[in-house]
Amino acid sequence: MKKLALVLLMLALALMLGGNALAQTAGDNSVYFVTYYSNANTGSAPSLKKVATTLAPDAVVRVINDGDQATTAFEGVENGPLWAAFYIFDDSEELQSCCACLVTSDGLLSESVNKQLTSNEFTGRAETSRGVIKLVSSSTNDPTNPVAAPGLRAWGTHIQSTSNIPSTGPFYVTETLLADANLGKVELGNLALSCSYGITLGSGYGVCPCTPEDHDF
Question: pTM for the full model?
Fold first, then answer.
């Protein structure tokens, strides 16, 4: 009876270890994320009494590096860097800006929609109020030549208006995890080529600035 109990215990341990090993190797290798932004660079209209305009809050995209590309065993050691390659579209499906921002292992990147992602558009004006944000987890610092590599995770805040009148408040803020998306070769090539053309024709415009890593706001 004791032998049977020992055998059952060994089998249970084997199943537990096998299950843990499977769980540890079944991670999420996503490299492409999408979200939207709304009510950017805008606020409620001033009244007839010329009361100062109330600006909408600023939205933020926060990105972390989960350490998937790390080459040493120590947490917190700066290695396995990745770049968050951003591609910002307006609601007419036109690319407005692009950039690649460094996120080292266990690091945090915070990008303002108003002050970074839409501040240096190809038009030279920060006027886009809503659109789409696409993010590629990349092993290169060049948004015109991203190389997809897993390891980044991202969240974004969204500015919602409680009024039926577009771009007017009151506003409130929600936050969601950026949605995983499928990244095909055509999509990756289109993002890289559109960014390259935009930067070339924009004569310096269109490259969104990057916040220094771990400077959250």
Answer: 0.80
